[in-house]
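Figure 6 in text form: structure in, sequence out.
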């Protein structure tokens, strides 16, 4: 048996592939374009393992996908591939439309053509799982209930609009063509291999190199944080037991303001790697210009996933953030290799000097 992953050299995809290989004998064919966010070093620990077949390619490349699908005949596809950073979508939305909308559409077409060639039994058991985000639901007020699967889609950034669009296409391919799809909408992930353009890894690395920890606006925006391997366990469960055509929210019931998140990781760093001058890392916190259209609050109600499939996160924020800080402290080579010229260019563009 074989499954396909797309975007499996990125942050969540690589964690998923590593967990999958540790828990299953099934082959994984991993198609990733290797944009700035894709990194084969994330998969170094499975180098040489014949159960992992890496293919550098674009989900929108119909010819490549047709060849791979007919060659490997997967029983399922988990689609992680996307442009994923909100700030980049503000500077340049075109790549987001190209991969998240047009790419997903092309991938769905390739999969629909392949699915049509399967026997009736294979058709029934096939799955296309689309990995999406809580950002499609828009922004919550302070006292609003957390997002449930039936919330209206109200995306506010080019990134979330492109993900919302891909979710709608996935839904339509189920209703129109009967393609056996599942969609997961997850909250903010953190953990190993997180690219340091995102808040948590950026602040860990900036803290260690004595740079400012940039907090947008007043730092009171709220996100609902989930350790990445808990997201992976939810995806595995939905893939095996989710009801066809359904969407499942995934989240850790862990709402925190950005300022609290950064203060927490500063305290862990104070303990694990104190500054030479003995001052707390929190003194590096710097308030900077807010993100345009910045969503104020996200919160996920994961009751459906818990009640239907019995999923629960294994990590709390306290255990997960400590593991994460330790991981970055212990993986200086990985850090050095991702913080290249292209990364420095992005940081200059986003934060100035
Ligand atoms: P990431 O940016 O770290 O990785 C994305 C991967 O997709 C990279 O390896 C990149 O090379 C690959 N890719 C990009 N365009 C491609 C294309 N056209 N064809 C093939 N591969 C391509 O992203 P991530 O944080 O790992 O997110 C993975 C998925 O999970 C995304 O769909 C994202 O929307 C969703 N998601 C992310 C979070 C989060 O907190 N990071 C939360 C919920 C949902
Ligand atoms: O909610 C799920 C989403 O979480 C995913 O769909 C996205 O792919 C993922 O990137 C993430 O989006 P966010 O915009 O929430 O993540 P980011 O790490 O960029 O920002 C987290 C919060 O921290 C957000 O409120 C913006 C703020 N922030 C971010 C950066 C990079 C800062 O205050 N300063 C920063 O320098």
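Output sequence:
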């Amino acid at each position: 048996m074989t499954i396909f992953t797309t975007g499996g050299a990125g942050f969540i995809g690589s964690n998923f592939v590593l967990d999958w290989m540790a828990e299953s004998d099934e082959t994984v064919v991993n198609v990733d374009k290797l944009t700035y966010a894709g990194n084969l070093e994330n998969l170094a620990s499975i180098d040489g393992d014949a159960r992992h077949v890496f293919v550098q390619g674009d989900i929108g490349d119909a010819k490549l996908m047709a060849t791979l699908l007919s060659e490997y005949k997967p029983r399922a596809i988990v689609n992680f591939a996307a442009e994923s950073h909100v700030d980049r979508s503000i500077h340049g939305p075109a790549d987001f439309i190209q991969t998240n909308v047009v790419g997903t559409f092309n991938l769905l077409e390739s999969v629909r053509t392949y699915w049509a060639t399967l026997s009736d039994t294979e058709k029934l058991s096939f799955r296309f799982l689309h990995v999406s985000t809580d950002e499609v639901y828009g922004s919550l007020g302070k006292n609003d209930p957390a997002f449930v699967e039936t919330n209206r889609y109200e995306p506010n950034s080019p990134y979330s609009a492109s993900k919302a669009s891909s979710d709608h296409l996935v839904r339509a391919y189920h209703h129109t063509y009967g393609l056996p799809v599942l969609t997961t909408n997850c909250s903010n992930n953190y953990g190993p291999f997180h690219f340091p353009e995102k808040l948590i890894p950026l602040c860990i690395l900036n803290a260690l190199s004595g740079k400012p920890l940039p907090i947008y606006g007043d730092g009171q925006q709220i996100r609902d944080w989930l350790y990445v391997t808990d997201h992976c366990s939810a995806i595995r469960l939905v893939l095996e037991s989710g009801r066809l055509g359904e969407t499942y929210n995934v989240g850790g019931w862990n709402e925190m303001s950005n300022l609290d998140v950064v203060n927490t990781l500063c305290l862990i760093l104070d303990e694990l790697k104190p500054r030479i001058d003995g001052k707390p890392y929190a003194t590096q916190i710097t308030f900077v210009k807010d993100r345009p259209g910045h969503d104020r609050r996200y919160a996920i109600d994961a009751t459906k996933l818990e009640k239907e499939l019995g999923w629960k996160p294994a990590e709390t924020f306290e255990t997960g953030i400590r593991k994460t800080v330790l991981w970055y402290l212990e993986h200086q080579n990985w850090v050095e290799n991702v913080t290249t010229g292209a990364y420095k260019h992005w940081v200059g563009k986003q934060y100035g000097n």
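Caption detail: The mean pLDDT is 97.
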